[in-house]
Amino acid sequence: MTKVLAGLALGLILLGGCSKAAKTDADNPYAGLDDAIRAWKTDVSAADPSCRRAPTGEKCESFEVSCKAQRVITPEDQGQGVTAKLVAHMSWSGFDEHGAAQPVSAPVLFTKSNGAWTRTEAKPVNPETCADLIAAVP
């Protein structure tokens, strides 16, 4: 009986390994997005005015992606090789022009084309849902 249970357990482990091995990054349209988001954080830390104004010994901290949401891939996008498109919103603790700590945030649009992620500025979004904000009509 022990040999049967051991054989069954081994079979399940091997089967589980096979199913994981069969899934590749090619199957995931969002493969590499985590790296693209880390690069965004690094770029904000180095170049965003709110981080560059940090007093000596201080730096931007508390980076947090509050939402991510898919965007429609148009036929024109598809023609340009776009396979994934989403907006993300990130907040961090930055500094104002006097060096005082202040919360800062920004949305960006990530687009994956030919296997590579690019990022561009995005219109303002709701930081909780990433839904586009609609300007108030006077």
How would you sum up the major sheet?
Answer: 4 strands, antiparallel
Shape, please?
Answer: globular
* Count of beta strands: 4
Number of alpha- plus pi-helical segments: 4
Order of helices and strands: HHHEHEEE
Oligomer status:
single chain
Q: Specify the helix fraction band.
A: 25-40%
Radius of gyration: 22 Å
Secondary structure category: alpha+beta
Characterise the protein shown here.
This protein is α+β, with helices and mostly antiparallel strands. Helix content is 33%, strand content 31%. The chain has helices at 2-22, 33-47, 49-52, 75-79, and strands at residues 61-70, 82-95, 101-113, 116-121. The protein has a four-stranded antiparallel beta sheet. A hairpin with a 5-residue loop joins strand 2 (82-95) and strand 3. The chain is globular and about 45 Å long.
In short:
The chain has 138 residues and is α+β, with helices and mostly antiparallel strands. Helix content is 33%, strand content 31%. It contains four helices and four strands.
Short key terms for the protein model shown above:
globular, 4 helices, alpha+beta, about 140 residues
Strand-helix topology:
Elements: H1 2-22, H2 33-47, H3 49-52, E1 61-70, H4 75-79, E2 82-95, E3 101-113, E4 116-121
Antiparallel strand pairs: 1-2, 2-3, 3-4
